[in-house]
Amino acid sequence: MENPEEKPVLGAQDNTTPVSNTSPDSINQLNDRISKESTFVDLLKQEMHKVIIGQKDMVDKLILSLLADGHILLEGVPGLAKTLAITALSRCVDVDFSRVQFTPDLLPADLIGTMIFNQKDGDFKVKKGPVFANFVLADEINRAPAKVQSALLEAMQERQVTIGGTTYPLPKPFLVLATQNPIDQEGTYPLPEAQVDRFMMKIIIGYPEKKEEQMIIRSSISKDPFPKANKVVTIDQILKARELVREVYLDEKIEQYIIDLVFATRNPADYNMPQLVDLISFGASPRASISMAILAKAYAFTKHRGYVIPEDIRAVAHDILRHRIGLSYEAEAEDKTTEDIIVEILNNVEVP
Predict the structure, then answer these.
(1) How far, in Å, are 44, 67, 174, 180, 263 from residue 41 at the CA level?
(2) Could you report the per-residue pLDDT of 283-331, keeping only the tens digit for each?
(3) Is the backbone peptide bond immediately before 24 cis, with ω within 30 degrees of 0?
(4) Angle 27-305-62 (CA atoms, 0-180°, nearest 5)?
(5) Range of the domain at 129
(6) Is 178 helix (H, G, I), strand (E, B) or coil?
(7) What pTM value is reported for the model?
(8) How many other C-beta atoms can be found within 10 angstroms of the C-beta atom of residue 153?
(9) Per the domain annotation, does 180 fall within a domain?
(10) Cβ count within 10 A of residue 247
(11) Strands 123-128 and 113-118: what pairing?
(12) Are residues 214 and 150 part of one domain?
């Protein structure tokens, strides 16, 4: 990556193009590289939409999580193609994929694996669980008790699993793609805060539009109702793209903007929002700042840009912050949601 001192500086008056006091050659070269290396993104979206009708935002965010190497939590009522979208993504990349249906009787060993005694050899051998895959779909993750949910913590954070005192690395890439039903539904358990924080994004899935649902009906009752996604991207392309995402230029002013947004969730009074003080029980963790930076870079990459602009930050802010802000009893009494708080923060924190 080039020397930051030679980087162009984003101007406050123009948020769409970088302004350089020296030479734009370095940013132009990076843009050219990204323009060539990011062409597969459009192809990947196109292939996924062969299977998924509508839900454009969900598809885009799944691809962002893949590029940013971050786990993703999808929340929505049953039947909104959450599982189908994740399965389609695994087919498009052609990776090892495993699906775990979380149920109240699931045990940690069912997920990560266990030691099994081999009578023939007279010793114990490791039987690895379904977590040893590139993509792990934790379906309805909030239907399992906390001890099973916590079994994912080491895998999600360290990309490794410890069985019988021995640590085993997980394959690369490794992504946990979890789905959950809304907490107010019967038979669900709230995820522990420590685990929720390890999800880079939480995506809320809504219902399709009327025209989209009409297309879903026609597709489902057609002669060939279940089209399959084809492999259009290799693992090497994904790993190479991740390295290039890290090179996307993030100006110091944009970094400060990220910090201001996160700190506003912790100390809203410092940002002229005293009305939020009694509504927030705890703010976003440092993982939010890290996630916002890397996701903004990935977002710029999908837009074939070599630099981050404030609009990139605002595009990913909701997905990063909505599960990292704790609401107080006062907020619940006033029927305030985390979405309301995030909107107010984005509207009040100064944009560079």
Answers:
(1) 5, 10, 19, 27, 33
(2) 999 999 999 999 999 999 999 988 899 999 999 999 999 999 998 899 8
(3) no
(4) 145
(5) 39-220
(6) strand
(7) 0.83
(8) 13
(9) yes
(10) 15
(11) antiparallel
(12) yes
